[in-house]
User: Fold this.
Amino acid sequence: MSKLGLIVRREYLTRVKKKSFLLATFLTPLAFGLIVFLSGYFASQMGNTEQKVLVVDDNNILKNYPLESKGKTFEYTAVDVADAKKTYIDDGYDMILHIPTFEDLSQSKFNIDYYAKEKQGIASLEGMESIVSKSLRSYKLEQSDIDKEQYDKLKTNVILENALLNSNDESIEGDRSSKFSSGIASGLSYVMGFLMYMVIFIFGGLVMRSVMEEKLNRIVEVIVSTVKPFQLMLGKLLGVGAVGLTQLLIWLILIPIIAVIATTILGVDASTSMGGVDAEQAAELMKTMEEEQGFSIQSIIAEVQSLNWLLILPAFLIYFVGGYFIYSSMFAAIGSSISDDMGEAQQLMLPLSIPVIIALIMIPAVIGNPNGPLAIFGSMFPLLSPILMPARLPFDPPIWQVLISIVILVLSVIFFVWLAGRIYRVGIFMRGKKITFKELAKWLRYNY
Amino acid sequence: MSILSLRNVVKQYHNHRAVDGVSFDIPDGSIFGLLGPNGAGKTSLIRIITTITGADSGEVFFDGEKINANSSQKIGYMPEERGLYKTMKVGEQLLYLAQLRGMTEKEAKDSIRYWLEKFNNTGWWDKKIEELSKGMQQKIQFIATVMHKPKLLILDEPFTGLDPLNTNLIKEEIHAMNSEGTSIVFSTHRMEQVEEICKDIVLINQGKKVIEGKVDEIKETYKDNLYRIEFDGSFPQDLNSSSFTIKSDTDKDVIIQVAPGHDSNELLSALIQKGIRIKSFTEVLPTLNEIFIKQVEN
Assistant:
């Protein structure tokens, strides 16, 4: 095995065999599964609480237009509200709904009030508002001369659809995605952008600590008497990078499996449980959305499948590796130049984290206008492109832009690794000197 | 035949010349001292010899050929500041370092077992470095330096931090390796340490060579013709003449310098004529330290 191969193998194996690696790799998807499970579980628990509501209607109309809601039972009383609120808790009610006398029942705005044993959630209160509105509307409709049939006809919904969405005519140019695909694409953009951000800091930090460790315990001198400093640095970058890829691939396989297991055990859909509504409510919601907007689970799945995965996955891997190399080579350079304390490291790391944070801040703007000048610039500039090009990928960027960006990325990787190598070879032998950027720039010109 | 020859080697760092036109030869099979005070350029020289850095100008020959990337496989180097991967196991670590030095896995394993057995430490293979005591770590460091049977062994301040037991153990091993043909270089600023071990030395200061040669010959060259005489009774004060100078005297002994052109026999007969009862008569040779200080002051 070549010396570089030996170094890569050591860097890889010592990390992969560590307990902390196994824990992080296998517990992260499990934690993800647990979050899905718990949020689904809590959501379903919340929906299951039965509430008994005492309705004090001073107008005496709601009896004939009864309130209806799942999980709530309504009882009507003629008792005065002042008496009712003294005894409702002892009588076993959770809440009083008080509809005061209205002079003019044809008005559009009604202020009603409630007394509750416990603090009510905003969703529960808003639900109550719509339930009462519905009953009052029915009452008003009957009181008016409007025919129920005619009233129903007044309901109007406009659905704007992309004409090319289902067209098979390939000769027409233009965007063929539906408006939901934008939502799904945005979600994917955020996920990939944040993943890159984490990769840069977690694995960059790993490279930096490892370089510091070798320098501080002096073994670096023994190693570089047999291999070139650049080989040692490159071997470290490759070895740690391989660890990152291994972890990413395991996650890509494990997370969907665990998500499926978590959802089947609970019978909740992972995507809807996130919204804090239970399955039945979600199904109802979906149904209304579908009726009103032509939106359904099936259409989401179809959208996800229609994304250009053949571009997104390989390109994401390229940016994953490219972004990793650009940033962790700089982390290696910093690690090599530090004498002993972490404070110094943090000072030097700050300028390095600025482009990463700028890229994160730019994600919403890029998603908002994925083919705008800002998005194009961001996805070309090599310090930003590892985060911003993956964010653009779900929006089908022109392929030539992706290719140019990748070429720039690859050239930048070569440049930054070279640059880091120049600093590294000097840094690992420097002792007890406070390092400034001016100093680092000098090292670039040193002859070793 | 020299195992290592330096010709006019220059190494310029940013704003100081660490090595300034140094030339010397290390005879094959010798125990050689690379001496000089801290900051003299020893470590810079060693880094050039171990191919960690290259010289700006000048030439280095190792084992008959110009030094190159493969030379390091025949060189063992123990830096002044020792270090091993703390969380790696002894066996894995030695195996890794041996393979970096060009050994096959099998050769490496055999050699590591041989050395661990030699130091009675066969049970250490699966122990992490951080679990070992300091003395044990030093033995592992030594094994890491010698396990690939180097032709040239470079030890930078090898005895600093060693306990007396390990110092003896390693001295023994060094002599054993030397008698099997390995050339040894000691780099140190503590010159008294190498006087007993090294036959040849080079002394450098501020990047330049000051003295080079065999220890005996150097002492011979730089001696001041001093003799120590132990005696009984009293010592006459009228010995001082153009030939002899009393450098120091106590109740029991005197040190006398013999002027150039005279020798010890003349001093002896002069003393006998004065009726002094001599108990011993020895030549006082300068220590390397004294020679060095004298040279630097000049």
User: Anything to note?
Assistant: The beta strands of chain A are 51-57, 72-77, 95-99, 113-116. Confidence is low (pLDDT under 50) at residues 268-279 of chain A.
